[in-house]
Amino acid sequence: MMNLFDNLTLASMVPGHHNLTYHLVVILIAALAAFIPRYFPMHFFTNRKIPEWFDEWMKYVPVALFTSLVVKGIFVDSKYQLISERVSWLGNILVYGHATYIISAIFVMLVAYFTRSMAFSVIIGLLAVWLLSFI
């Protein structure tokens, strides 16, 4: 019986384990892919005056991105469906989202508001998720 891979040299399609040229080319392409998106905005906006309205609007982008990531982590699963679970320790009520994450997020918001400390907020959030996972 003839093997399907007899006529194909599979080794020629996959780079060799010790192929230095291939690895250097991959590293160079990865470096360019990381450098170009950082260089061009800096190059184009260095000599141009950014409008005040645009600069003011861009201050909200990090907060909006962070909020969208947190909300997705709490309320949406990996299949992009809304999470709903019954929580027995809250009287068997239906909660949309991970109940432990929601309660932990409330603790983090309160701590962040009153202390303005990022490190303390992260520590409180981690402790809250850990402690509520035992319930």
From TrEMBL:
<feature type="transmembrane region" description="Helical">
    <location>
        <begin position="20"/>
        <end position="40"/>
    </location>
</feature>
<feature type="transmembrane region" description="Helical">
    <location>
        <begin position="60"/>
        <end position="77"/>
    </location>
</feature>
<feature type="transmembrane region" description="Helical">
    <location>
        <begin position="118"/>
        <end position="134"/>
    </location>
</feature>
<feature type="transmembrane region" description="Helical">
    <location>
        <begin position="89"/>
        <end position="112"/>
    </location>
</feature>
<dbReference type="Pfam" id="PF05437">
    <property type="entry name" value="AzlD"/>
</dbReference>
<dbReference type="InterPro" id="IPR008407">
    <property type="entry name" value="Brnchd-chn_aa_trnsp_AzlD"/>
</dbReference>
<keyword id="KW-1133">Transmembrane helix</keyword>
<keyword id="KW-0812">Transmembrane</keyword>
<protein>
    <submittedName>
        <fullName>Branched-chain amino acid transport</fullName>
    </submittedName>
</protein>
<keyword id="KW-0472">Membrane</keyword>
